[in-house]
Amino acid sequence: MDFNECVQQHYAMKRFDGRPIPDAAVRELLELVRLAPSALNLQPRRIRVVSDPAQKKALKPAAFGQEQITTCSHLLVFCADPDYDGLIRRLDALLKTNGVPEETRNAIVEMAARFAGTMTPEQRLAWSEAQTYLALSNALNGAKSLGFDSCPMTGFDPTAFSRILAIPAPLVPVILCPVGYAADSPGPKIRLPLEEIPV
């Protein structure tokens, strides 16, 4: 399926049929998510993958009872990482491992440190959330390209999810993406006309 078809055919699934997605396909999806862009290549996001039925059942009340949580094959919990000191150290090590020249590496690290140094903790979290949504886009279109369905979900209690899944601080769950096989049918795709998009 090409990208145009993925975009045209994707819709927010409200219920899945419960069939499991093969592990190899889940790994392929995560690889597509891993390759998502991020500003300064800091990649300030992590993903908890939940497939255990008991865990999904425990999470459902914290997602206001939405059926996608328990009927999906796998639930991707996208977490923003606002630890910029740690992110910058990780980026520096990644650049070094990949053979980036020291002068270039130092320039990138210094630029990232200056950028992070201007932000409050709240701004760091907000910036990490925005970068996490970029990765979500790869998950939504990637799932469709691999032959299954998905649904972006912001209706959940992040604090409860962190507690139930023992997600370590300072990671913060910011959006969910259940994936699986459709058990409902898409309605028409209702969007603003193209003429109303430009400002």
Topology, element by element:
Elements: H1 3-9, H2 23-34, E1 45-50, H3 53-59, H4 68-71, E2 74-80, H5 84-97, H6 102-117, H7 121-145, E3 149-150, H8 158-165, E4 172-180
Helix pairs in contact: 1-7, 2-7, 5-6
Report on the architecture of this protein.
- This protein has about 200 residues and is of the alpha+beta class.
- It has a domain at about 5-85 and about 130-180: NADH Oxidase.
- The protein has helices at about 5-10, 25-35, 55-60, 70, 85-95, 100-115, 120-145, 160-165; strands at about 45-50, 75-80, 150, 170-180.
- A four-stranded antiparallel sheet has the order 1-2-4-3, sandwiched between helices.
- The longest helix has 25 residues, at about 120-145.
- The radius of gyration is 18 Å and the shape is globular.
- It is an enzyme of class 1 (oxidoreductase).
User: Which outline best applies?
Assistant: globular
Q: Approximately how much helix is present in the residues?
A: 40-55%
Low-confidence stretches: none
Identify the CATH class of the domain at 3-83 and 130-182.
Answer: Alpha Beta
How would you summarize what this structure contains?
This protein is α+β, with helices and mostly antiparallel strands. The chain has helices at residues 3-9, 23-34, 53-59, 68-71, 84-97, 102-117, 121-145, 158-165; strands at 45-50, 74-80, 149-150, 172-180. The protein contains eight helices and four strands, in the order ααβααβαααβαβ.
